[in-house]
Amino acid sequence: MVKLTINGQKVQAEEGTTILEAARENNIYIPSLCHHEEVTPYGACRLCLVEVTKNGRERLVASCLYEVAEGLKVKTDSERIATNRKMLMELLLARCPNNKAVQDLAHKLGVEKTSFKLDDDDCMLCALCIRVCQEVVGVSAISLVNRGVDRALATPFFEPSSVCIGCGSCAYVCPVDAIRFEDIGDTRHIYWPDNDMEFKLKKCKTCSRYWAPQAQLDYIIKKAGLAPDAFDNCPDCRD
Ligand code: FES
Questions:
Q1: Where would you tag: which of 12, 18, 96, 144 has the fewest CB atoms within 10 A of its CB?
Q2: Residue 92: CB within 6 Å of ligand 1?
Q3: Which atom of ligand 1 is nearest to the CA of 44?
């Protein structure tokens, strides 16, 4: 175990954990948007900034990437942090001014308006959906494409992905609801910010309801080595 202080409070954390994880274990709030415990941290939003003092030197770091160390002193709410976090939040608000989740977090951090030029995006390019698709689902259906102001989240070449299974994990995990999906009749529609796709849904043999994308079920059957008829019935009609 490693001993450190956060806001003057002595805490212990497992070696290899990040400051963000150690803070959460001790009920110390650090704002974050792009962090998820199931996937590799990426450091995109920078809202999790904290101030660390090591060997007498103070600096700002992203707490979701920075690992705890013996004797480390961490501040989560200094004036320097507040100024930097406010500017980051203003930038985010300028990119996604109409996004409810971004507006709510801005409000929580005391930011009501932005001094930066307004855009009209929903996606904040945190890549959480990409990491979940790759690392949890095991598919790489989406990625960040283009550079600079044209940077966007999309399937390769904005074409329908040949590997997407329509599971909707990207939508579930998006911290700002920039990705949506809906099931209409026998079809699932997934809407990414810059393109969308459709997937046929499997019909339950017993109750006849359409209940999951066929491509997702085929993927699970193959990966888990299940019988081809393993998902003929929906969860409600299974024994
Ligand atoms: S949560 Fe650390 S950079 Fe986004």
A1: 12
A2: no
A3: 3
pLDDT of 150 reads 84
Mutate to test the pocket of ligand 1, among 17, 30, 45 (most ligand atoms within 8 A of CB): 45
Domain total of the chain: 3
Decide if 188 contacts 114 (C-beta within 8 A).
no
Rounded Cα gap, residues 72 and 56, in angstroms: 10
Q: Using the predicted structure, report yes or no on whether residue 72 has a pLDDT greater than 80.
A: yes
Question: Do 69 and 53 form a contact (C-beta atoms < 8 A)?
Answer: no
Helix (H, G, I), strand (E, B) or coil at 105: helix
Of 21, 32, 85, 129, the one to substitute when testing ligand 1's pocket (max ligand atoms within 8 A of C-beta) is 32
75 lines ligand 1 (CB under 6 A): no
C-alpha angle with apex 132: 136 to 47, nearest 5 degrees?
135
* Residue range of the domain that includes 11: 2-77
Label residue 194 by pLDDT band (50, 70, 90): confident
Q: What is the CATH number of the domain that holds 43?
A: 3.10.20.740
CA–CA dist 190, 181 (Å, integer):
4
Cβ–ligand 1 distance for 31 under 6 Å, the answer: no
Neighbours of 13 (CB within 10 A): 22
Per the CB < 8 A criterion, the answer to whether 179 and 190 are in contact is: yes
Rounded to two decimals, the pTM is 0.90
pLDDT score of 159: 87
